[in-house]
Specification:
This protein has 446 residues and is α+β, with helices and mostly antiparallel strands. 26% of the residues lie in helices and 21% in strands. Strands 1, 2, 5, 6, 7, 8 and 19 form a seven-stranded mixed β-sheet that branches. A four-stranded antiparallel β-sheet has the order 11-12-10-13, with helices on one face. A two-stranded antiparallel ribbon has the order 3-4.
Length: 446
């Protein structure tokens, strides 16, 4: 076996550069820590860039009787959106921000570089070394040979709680039947006449009847439809069931996903106005995964916390998104809304896995039950959780004990960095009237 290349001298090691890992690394770097971010793909952004997860699901509360909304996600998320807007690469449609994934890749590179973060791409986490309740090193596979990264504090931004699990943390998986939400291969179709394309609601009606069509539709579900630019439509419409931690199931989801995308595009050409000349422009780099491991932390955010719109003394981020659980079968989606102005907070204790002193989780793998997870898993919320984790990691230095920090000081620093812990106006905080919204279909379900 080849000896691992040693990579040391860092304050903070971040595994995974999706929404949570990117935000954590950036926040820690801006706070003065020396940060190394290792990512398995060739770009940052995770679902936003590699899996074509568009748009950002809502960062706003549901509108009140007067039609106004308030922002519950800001900070680094607001900065990303603002800088995309300045490039003409983001637009608010209803309560969701659409964005261009290619512009996003370049922007995230710029932001981490500005924060002094060092990045290694194509590094796949496969193990962790632990001693006396502390992570000592994280091990990664790379084409140049294995890597061994050491630091004082570690942040799990994998989305799958892979670093925490590798370090021996107890994790949860699935519902009481052991099932997780299905996987989805997102795709972009070109050659669409947006002026005659039906609304998202009408597309759902047509798809629900698609089994009777010619060609018959394999996937009769449509979750989300957005238009990233004139002539193109991005679809979140393909559900492939399976165990998201089973190598065979994930591989089948990739191949079956491509087959179902091809079928869906043929159906669009045959049955949907505006799509007669459409063609498949691209699919996601790999299948999108909504749910896998969730770490068992010092606190488990619950369905009751969601329903009670609960706030916490150690709340470090907010969320206003629905309970949104996709069933393994077509057309099965469980939705539970918070109502006008509703939101809840995510406590810092959800980021701290039991039994490990120098590890934080920044992503959808934080400590939560199935219902709470289905709400907080969206990218705006995850980015805010990641920002808080990065600030906390820097605060814990030089000792690296993430439970020894002053959480009220952490909350102050989150606000100082532009984050919100109570809904506020700003960043599209007033819902756009229909006459002001971007042209084309709007996103609905992630």
């Amino acid at each position: 076996m080849n000896a691992a290349r040693e990579i040391g001298g860092y304050d903070v090691i971040v595994a995974g550069g999706g929404a949570g890992g990117f935000a954590a690394a950036t926040a820690a770097g801006r706070a003065g820590a020396r940060v190394l971010l290792l990512e398995r793909e060739g770009c940052l952004g995770g679902g936003a860039t590699t899996m074509l997860v568009h748009p950002f699901m809502t960062h706003l509360t549901q509108p009140d009787a007067g039609g106004s909304c308030k922002a519950v996600n800001a900070g680094l998320f607001a900065e990303v959106v603002g800088r995309l807007q300045a490039r003409g690469a983001a637009v608010l449609a209803g309560r969701c921000w659409r964005f261009d994934d290619e512009a996003m890749k370049l922007l995230l590179d710029e932001i981490v570089a500005e924060a002094g973060v060092e990045v290694i791409f194509h590094a796949v986490l496969f193990d962790a070394e632990v001693s006396a309740g502390r992570v000592q090193a994280a091990r990664f596979a790379h084409n140049g040979g294995p890597l061994r990264a050491t630091g004082k504090v570690f942040i799990d931004g994998t989305g799958d709680a892979l670093l925490a699990w590798s370090a021996g943390a107890e994790c949860m998986f699935g519902d009481h039947h052991g099932q997780v939400m299905p996987m989805t291969l997102n795709f972009v179709v070109g050659g669409v006449d947006l002026s005659t394309l039906p609304s998202t609601a009408k597309l759902r009606e047509l798809a629900a009847e698609g089994e009777q069509g010619n060609p018959p539709l394999a996937n009769t579900n449509v979750s989300c439809v957005t238009s990233p630019r004139e002539g193109y439509v991005q679809f979140n419409a393909i559900r492939t069931p399976g165990d998201t931690l089973d190598p065979a199931d994930v591989s089948r989801a990739e191949t079956e996903g491509r087959r179902r995308v091809d079928n869906f595009v043929a159906w669009l050409r045959a049955k949907v106005p505006g799509c007669q000349a459409c063609y498949l422009a691209k699919t996601g780099g790999h299948v999108g995964i909504r749910e896998s491991r969730r770490v068992l932390g010092d606190y488990v955010l619950s369905h009751d916390d969601f329903r009670g719109k609960r706030t916490f003394d150690d709340g470090i981020a907010c969320c206003s998104y629905d309970v949104d659980i996709h069933g393994q079968s077509q057309g099965q989606t469980r939705i539970e809304r918070l109502g006008p102005g509703g939101y809840y907070q995510i406590p810092y204790r959800c980021l701290t896995p039991k039994g490990l002193a120098n590890l934080l989780v920044a992503g959808r793998g934080i400590s939560a039950d199935v219902e709470a997870h289905s709400s907080l898993r969206i990218m705006p919320t995850v980015m805010c959780v990641g920002q808080a984790a990065g600030i906390a990691a820097a605060m814990s230095l030089p000792g690296g004990d993430v439970r020894a920090i002053d959480v009220q000081d952490l909350r102050r620093r989150v606000r100082q960095a532009g984050g919100v812990l109570e809904p506020s106006l700003g960043l599209g905080g007033a819902c756009l009237p229909a006459s002001k919204q971007a042209v084309g279909p709007k996103g609905d379900r992630a």
